[in-house]
Write a structure and sequence with these properties.
Shape of chain A: globular
CATH topology of the largest domain in chain A: Tetracycline Repressor, domain 2
Order of helices and strands of chain A: HHHHHHHHHHHH
Oligomer: homotetramer
CATH superfamily of the largest domain in chain A: Tetracycline Repressor, domain 2
Largest interface: C-D, 49 and 52 residues
Number of helices of chain A: 12
Strand content of chain A: under 5%
CATH class of the largest domain in chain A: Mainly Alpha
Structural class of chain A: mainly alpha
DNA sequence: AATGAATGAGGTTTCATTCAT
DNA sequence: TATGAATGAAACCTCATTCAT
């Protein structure tokens, strides 16, 4: 599920319908809620691939095998659809983070697993990165608006704090580290690598998948562990 | 039904309208090249603020105190303008990097300075980040196209390689580090922090300037140094 | 120089403008297909009067009492609209030709009627000529594209073949004539006269309507009949 | 010299010039009048290939290896350039017609040669046809304006009158024919065939060159001769 | 719940033409 | 004579959105 997928080659002209089609229009209701989900899923792909302003309502509805009108029916506007996309993208990530059961593990090992998880999540959900980039472009405009997002917050940060504290208690980690900064560093190393792989590989002439990726994974773990180890 | 019918009074070719121009035209040629520069500068701002698809040609030309037409005169299309913007943004950074004179410095200190430089550059050139993000969104489409960009490459990577080698020679750094990964890590830590400050501060409820920024600067240096030190 | 700068007050996505619409929108849906027909009819007039490149989308939509957008809604592009115009113009002529019931008539008389019909059709459908001229200018570009046109073909050619054969059987016509060439000659004589009347009358200083037209009609019939008569 | 030739692939974007070019502009005067001729020649091709409204000033200047400005320098406007094109196209044809020395020949043979000449001229100067078609589209607008054109007139019509008179005198031709109509018929048969070859061959599925052309040539001569012979 | 039709505003691009040197 | 720079007007086309059924 890369942002390369369907999303339609963007050229397809919406219309040019011939005068033939006269028989009653074929409405195919399917329970309703289903359409909503399909639109949301399509919107994630499209916004991820083209950004907010580049993602066309039309392209989304087409990718959802529905029609423009339904987007307004369910979401009211393109922008509100985008907010829902943001919410879903975050919620999905937080759900995945919640499933991480690292509280019992050895702190160092927990750290390693957390780094790996982050990298894997970004790799398997690249849409998350581009959508966040977009939100950063707009200076957090929608994130700020969304009540849902403000109410929640990343379970991973809490997790990181717990891991860190246990590491300190066990005498494994130095005590003068801010868990938030540690946490952000994990994100940073992985976010950058995944998000910038296209421009990077253009310059470095090497693709950043395969062995390079494995090497980076080891390196990122190493950097993080060394950052806290006494 | 002859072709004579209403269809409007007009005239087949636009030239027939000649002489009707009213109000004195205010053309203020200035040697040409100047306009080009102004457009490029304006485009950097606008694309940085709104992205490629969100950055309106019209807004750019106005910001450059010129008119749409000149964009096409000098650049041919919005997209080619974007490519030039990309080129300029990279070139500017590489020029700044070239001014770094860290070859004589103590390797550790050189590393520290390099981290600091990167952070400062991103902070003072945030347009670089959003423009790169956009390019990543488009999967490096334009970077790949630009011959200029492919021919050049970051002086900083070379610099980092030299610093690292000297550190190893002096017995300060461990020998099993890939300079490229070290280099990317410096970028990653700073890129992420600056690029994501809006969404991050929305979630973390704290702004990431001021003291937080100072703290991050120290932390980033620390992370990098620890990553290579024996 | 942050992306915050002036650059205009706007908003990245157009949707933010919502709700500002003033004055009541006057949409007058009419079942749809009607608008399509009106556009097509208007397009015939406009393209006939100004050619493909001279025929402005804007002028067409206004003549159809609709708006530009609907042209794209129904036809996709100006060029596809032109193709449909071509198709319609041909189809209309072929329909008219189909109504010719000349199979029972005396071959000579049938020939005469056919010549007259052609002249009359061109006179009453001058748009046909200019549109065809345009297509010839473009070297048959659109005719070649249209599947519909390629599938069909002029009933008149068949008719001409039948008339000719009967004439030969009855010993009225000489046997060494190619019906296709005979047919083309009928078109040629009438096409030229009607199509070139403006330039011709400019040079000849006489208008080609009225008596001149009557005279030409007799002449054309005469030429064609003499061409085949034994 | 078909209208297919250079004329530039129409896609070439006029500008997108880089900021490099700083040295003094290279003016390469060449005697002046030469440029004028080159523009006129280029304009004939371009207007022939695209019509008046479709023929871009820019494309013309480029095809003439000059620049837009020179068109205005020499011709004042696109439309006046078109008028000159019209004039030249007519003048060239009249010159060719003047070279026809058919006054001594046998009337029948003269007729045959005249038909052949017309066909050949159209075939070798297809630009003539499309440019005339264009002028007809515009209802003779420019032809009417041009004083030069009105002062002159086709030598061929005079020639035809002389041939016809001699034919009548010799008892070869019937006496009740209007030479003008005879003349127009010659033009018509050839004009139609050459002008419509693209659309015709699209429908008839056969190209109209080669053998078909030879056949048509014989046929046209035959039609004309039969039209006047007693 | 679902959809075809309609639309205003504006987006990118092109055009003929003029200015200034 | 020649040319680069500049420009208003408009061309084609697209977008998000609403109406009406």
């Amino acid at each position: 599920m890369t942002e390369q997928t369907p999303v339609a080659p963007s050229t397809a002209s919406r219309s040019a319908r011939k005068g033939k089609r006269r028989g009653r229009p074929k409405k195919q209701p399917n329970g309703g809620i289903d359409t909503r989900e399909k639109i949301l899923a399509a919107a994630i792909k499209v916004f991820a691939a083209r950004g907010l302003s580049g993602g066309r309502v039309n392209v989304i509805s087409r990718a959802a095998r529905s029609n423009d009108r339904m987007i307004y029916y369910y979401f009211g506007s393109k922008e509100r659809l985008f907010v829902e996309v943001l919410e879903k993208v975050y919620r999905d990530m937080w759900e995945a983070e919640s499933a991480l059961a690292l509280d019992q593990a050895d702190p160092i090992e927990a750290l390693e697993k957390f780094v790996g998880f982050t990298l894997d999540y970004y790799l398997s959900h690249p849409e998350m990165l581009t959508i966040l980039n977009n939100e950063n472009l707009l200076q957090g405009k929608h994130v700020t608006k969304s009540k849902k997002l403000k109410e929640l917050s990343s379970p991973a940060l809490d997790l990181m704090e717990r891991i860190y504290r246990r590491g300190v208690e066990k005498g494994l980690f130095r005590a003068d580290v801010k868990p938030l900064e540690l946490y952000l560093s994990v994100l940073a190393l992985n976010y950058f690598y995944v998000s910038n792989r296209y421009t990077l590989s253009a310059f470095l002439g090497a693709d950043l998948t395969g062995d390079s990726l494995k090497s980076w994974r080891r390196w990122a773990v190493d950097v993080i562990v060394r950052a806290v180890r006494v």
